[in-house]
Specification:
The protein contains 16 helices and 14 strands. It is an alpha+beta fold. It has 2 domains: 89 residues, Immunoglobulins (Immunoglobulin-like, Sandwich); 451 residues, Glycosyltransferase. A hairpin with a 2-residue loop joins strand 8 and strand 9. The N and C termini lie far apart (60 Å). The relative contact order is 0.12. It binds ligand 9MR (2 copies). One ligand 9MR binds next to loops.
Length: 572
């Protein structure tokens, strides 16, 4: 090397250093991390996010005694288009001593936790959400702590709405429709959304019976001889059963007032309540869930009768749907509560037929199944298709003579692989991407993780489990806004969910364990947001029902995933 080049290089180097110092002072750096803590023995990531390219700067991690246990250079970030941010990821997987550590990046510090089982409280709280949202019962201090409240929405005097009138049940007929979980921040109940939510909890039990047989969640039924998760599900199943018209097997789409109530506690609710219009979507969701429930309860001596009743109800609802394949729901005039509309029910037909085939072994249901036509997209309330694939994978052997499980497996694994690849390779190391930021995007995030977890259950390929562990960080703070999207979990968790009870009670903290809707650029509520970017379009305000409501369907996959992670983490 000639002298002049050396000189030139050293000049560049000095200038480079100077500009680095200048930049690190200007650059806004945000540390995004999992606020409940990282599990020993698992991959651990923190992201450094910035609106401008990230310069090469030093970082160090100290343990609780102040000893530096890791240091290095924050790599130049990759661009994350959904947030319009640059992201640099620090991988500290090798730190496996449980402790509280401090990360220091250019003078910005953040404490974080590594522990053997970070999932314990989270697993309990996300499940308990269902108990807190029970209708027709008091929440007592013993089970609800400071969120105790009087009973509300006792459903013994519900009217048949004009849209639901029949010869046997004319308009205004009073029926009893008790129990159930409130759908969300509102006090209404919808069979379609109960479909995927209740299935997900049942599926959690079906796939992890050893874990749930021993797991208590401190609910009023905890001392009986059924696993708590099934007791909780019964609370909603009893309501679903009441939503079926015994005369023809059709299922009312929803049980609501005519409009949304004000910000009140359940016991203050005083609108008239109705069952509204039967729909094909309600019948199919109902048929699928009751078929799954029937085969599970049939394994308990004390629940055989219940199992039989569920199966009969399931078959009747399915027959009704076949006779009324296109009774799509839209709000009748004068009804302004949630709609849960769906005019493409191919997936729901396949799902219901699959569950009935598994439960009854009656091959006539196999004739209604065409595996190649089942979409493998991540499921949500409007497209349950992949739930059929999940159940096919669970009963792969039993079904192999009746349907094309090989195709189902290929399709299922190809989607799981795609999601896993996104988690490992995207700038932010998450599965969320582009159009995933919809109303309820955190429900998408949860269902993506559940999908990948199911691939682990099927294949026992550890990379799927690793991906789920990393991906869960997203909901707990390693995301576009640095907020933990689950109430009560982490130092900067959502505090003002669109949840009537939490807003109307006089308790400062919201009910814990609720997954809020999450960022989405639609901003249909016209509230104040600090960004329009899809991954940052989130407002932690009561006002924001489009990004900060909670529902049974967004919590369910998180119940599934977190309890499964706890199972694998503590399994000997
Ligand atoms: O509170 C309602 C919430 O539970 C629903 O999910 C949401 C969308 O249907 O609607 C909310 O109610 C809002 C209504 O639609 C418009 N006026 C403001 C209401 C919230 O305060
Ligand atoms: O989760 C639903 C979302 O996919 C829709 O875009 C949105 C508007 O139709 O409605 C959401 O469901 C709400 C339901 O209608 C009423 N209860 C609260 C639900 C969550 O916001």
């Amino acid at each position: 090397m000639t002298r002049s080049i050396t000189k030139l290089l050293s000049l560049f180097f000095t200038l480079g250093l100077m500009s680095q110092v200048a930049m690190s002072q200007k650059v806004d750096l945000n540390i995004r991390y999992n606020q409940i803590g990282y599990a020993t023995g698992k991959t651990k990531l923190i992201s450094i996010n910035s609106t401008t390219p990230i310069p090469n700067i030093n970082f160090e991690i100290k343990n609780s005694s102040g000893v530096v246990v890791k240091s290095g250079i924050v790599q130049p970030g990759k661009f994350w288009k959904d947030a319009n941010e640059y992201v640099s990821v620090i991988d500290f997987s090798e730190l496996n001593k449980k402790d509280t550590y401090t990360l220091d990046v250019s003078g910005i510090q953040q404490k974080f936790i590594v522990s053997d089982n970070p999932y314990n409280k989270l697993a309990l709280d996300v499940f308990k959400y269902y108990y807190f949202n029970r209708a027709s019962t008091e929440i007592t201090e013993e089970y609800g702590g400071k969120w105790k409240r009087p009973s509300g929405l006792n459903g013994t005097k519900v009217k048949i709405h004009s849209s639901a009138a029949s010869k046997e049940r004319p308009e205004g007929t009073v029926i009893s429709v008790d129990k159930g979980w409130f759908d969300a921040g509102d006090y209404n109940m919808y069979v379609t959304n109960s479909g995927i939510s209740t299935y997900t909890l049942l599926s959690a039990y079906e796939n992890f019976p050893d874990y749930y047989n021993k797991k208590t969640f401190n609910i009023p039924e905890s001392t009986n001889n059924l696993p708590d998760i099934l007791d909780e599900v019964i609370w909603n199943l009893d309501w679903m059963l009441a939503m079926q018209d015994p005369n023809d097997g059709g299922v009312y789409h929803k049980h609501t007032g005519l409009r949304f109530s004000g910000v009140i506690m359940p016991h203050q609710y005083d609108f008239d309540r109705y069952v509204i219009k039967k729909s094909t979507s309600a019948a199919l969701n109902f048929a699928a869930v009751t078929a799954v429930a029937s085969r599970i309860f049939n394994t308990f001596k004390t629940k055989k009768k219940y199992a039989k009743r569920l199966l009969e109800a399931s078959k009747k609802a399915y027959e009704w749907a076949k006779k009324h394949p296109k009774d799509y729901f839209l709000n009748p005039k004068g009804v302004r509560t949630g709609q849960y509309e769906d005019d493409d029910l191919k997936g729901e037909f396949q799902w219901a037929a699959t569950e009935l085939l598994i439960t009854t072994a009656d091959t006539s249901y196999a004739k209604d199944i065409s595996v190649a036509s089942i979409s493998n997209e991540v499921p949500w309330w409007q497209d349950a298709s992949a739930l059929a694939l999940y159940s096919m994978m669970r009963y792969e052997k039993q079904l192999s003579k009746q349907i094309d499980v090989t195709t189902a497996k290929k399709s299922f694994l190809s989607k799981a692989e795609e999601l896993k690849t996104r988690i490992f390779n995207s700038p932010m190391r998450i599965a969320m991407n582009g159009t995933d930021y919809v109303w309820g995007s955190n429900g998408v995030a949860g269902n993506q993780l559940m999908y990948v977890l199911k691939a682990y259950e099927l294949t026992k390929n550890k990379s799927y489990l690793d991906a789920v562990v990393i991906g869960l960080d997203y909901l707990l703070g390693r995301n576009g806004v640095g907020v933990s999207y689950i109430t009560g979990q982490g130092s900067n968790a959502a505090k003002h969910p669109h949840h009537r009870t939490s807003e109307a009670d006089t308790i400062e903290e919201p009910v814990p364990g609720m997954v809020v809707g999450g960022p989405q650029p639609g901003q249909q509520d016209n509230c104040e947001y600090s960004s329009k970017m899809p991954a940052k379009s989130y407002s932690d305000t009561w006002c924001s029902y489009a990004s900060n409501e909670v529902t049974i369907n967004w919590n369910a996959p998180i119940v599934y995933v977190v309890n499964a992670l706890q199972y694998y983490q503590t399994k000997k």
